[in-house]
Amino acid sequence: MNYSADSGNIVYVGNIDPRITKEQLYELFIQINPVLRIKYPKDKVLQAYQGYAFIEFYNQGDAQYAIKIMNNTVRLYDRLIKVRQVTNSTGTTNLPSNISKDMILPIAKLFIKNLADSIDSDQLVKIFNKFGKLIREPEIFYLSNGKLKCAYVYFEDFEKADLAIKSLNNQLVANNRITVDYAFKENGKGNAKYGDDVDRLLNKEALKHNMLK
């Protein structure tokens, strides 16, 4: 079977009930056309799927057919799933406003733990932006039954993220000693984190070709 590496082969699937597994998604879409791979983000800290997936087919024709057949026609646990192409005919992104292209490209995702209650998203931007460009707004959440304030911070460049870790890990911020490290990968095996050699190589290529702009 011929395969053409192109973002036109990838469809975004949204409004997925978190009870749906990756295997169930595969079984559903394989009925339409052969599936090359599925990226179905699951937060390893919160242990919950994030409600969307990227499904890659072998060619654009297969992807288009899946959109035609599946978009707004299939219900999973009473949720009508949304299926659309990642890029349109001009090559620009064609995703919902809360899903950006960097979600399927190699970015440096950091996990920040033990934040002070006074720290909000804007303050996180000010703290981390001095080390390098942030590609998305920080995400704040709580663990340990709401007692432990944490956040995800997204850098465009792994070298800048390395500098932030070196400078801020185990340091006092607003009187709280925070932990800064790379986040666990959503679909990684075992305890795989962002920042391995493959991530860094792909990130450099993405930056070189302005794919993260």
Structure description:
With 213 residues, the protein is α+β, with helices and mostly antiparallel strands. The chain has 2 domains: 10-100, 2-Layer Sandwich (Alpha-Beta Plaits); 108-194, Alpha-Beta Plaits. It has helices at residues 22-29, 60-70, 121-129, 158-168, 197-208; strands at residues 10-14, 35-39, 42-43, 48-49, 52-57, 75-76, 79-80, 82-85, 108-113, 139-143, 148-155, 172-173, 176-177, 179-182. The strands form 5 sheets. A 4-stranded antiparallel beta sheet has the order 2-5-1-8, covered by helices on one side. β6 (75-76) and β7 form a beta hairpin. It is globular.
State the main characteristics.
213 residues; alpha+beta; four-stranded antiparallel β-sheet; 14 strands
Task: Walk me through the topology.
Blueprint: E1 10-14, H1 22-29, E2 35-39, E3 42-43, E4 48-49, E5 52-57, H2 60-70, E6 75-76, E7 79-80, E8 82-85, E9 108-113, H3 121-129, E10 139-143, E11 148-155, H4 158-168, E12 172-173, E13 176-177, E14 179-182, H5 197-208
Antiparallel strand pairs: 1-5, 1-8, 2-5, 3-4, 6-7, 9-11, 9-14, 10-11, 12-13
